[in-house]
Write a structure and sequence with these properties.
single chain; 180 residues; mainly alpha; Serine Threonine Protein Phosphatase 5, Tetratricopeptide repeat; globular
């Protein structure tokens, strides 16, 4: 076999193989089936629902930790920024507060709500779950955790998950201890 014949044969084999490899590299997994959201609420409406779920807390057990002044300033700053429509900046302020007090369930919950405003469902769910795990698991803050998870599940089209979260919201209401 001459070198020219060898090259021609090699090209005839290599070219189709290269083409197949290139096509295979371009192929991707089929897109995931789009989920149908079970809510038409906007993120602002969802966060309003979450915050309203806390209620006034009148007549029930509610655990409130002592607050660090710097953290309180950052929380106030985040609330102002959110009210002005600077949601990403509000998230940064809350992230800074969480760096100072990483285990504060109220901060984590506020950050979960801001994540929902930013359209980050995964972060909203993760933060709400973490806040619930670290919190007292009763009272107004507990209801906000579970209502956040309910809203995320509705967005994901998960009716069973949303119903389970709704049931957990109701379980958060516990009266204060009896006084004798």
């Amino acid at each position: 076999m001459t070198s020219r014949t060898f090259r021609e044969t090699s090209l005839r084999i290599a070219l189709p193989c290269a083409l197949l490899v290139a096509l295979a590299a371009c192929a991707s997994a089929p897109p995931a089936a789009p989920t149908t959201a079970l809510t038409s609420a906007t993120p602002v409406q969802m966060v309003a629902t979450i915050r309203a779920s806390a209620g006034d807390g009148e007549g029930e057990l509610s655990v409130q930790p002592l607050r660090d002044n710097e953290v309180e300033d950052l929380r106030d700053q985040a609330h102002r920024l959110e009210a002005q429509g600077h949601v990403a900046d509000a998230a940064k302020a809350l992230d800074h507060a969480i760096e100072i007090v990483p285990g504060d369930p109220a901060l984590l919950q506020e950050r979960a709500e801001v994540a929902l405003l930013l359209g980050d469902r995964a972060a909203a769910a993760s933060l709400a779950e973490r806040a619930f795990a670290l919190g007292s698991q009763v009272g107004p803050l507990c209801r906000r955790h579970w209502t956040t998870l309910e809203q995320v599940r509705l967005l994901e089209g998960d009716a069973a998950g949303a119903a389970a979260a709704r049931a957990a919201v109701d379980a958060c209401r516990i009266g204060p201890p009896a006084r004798y």
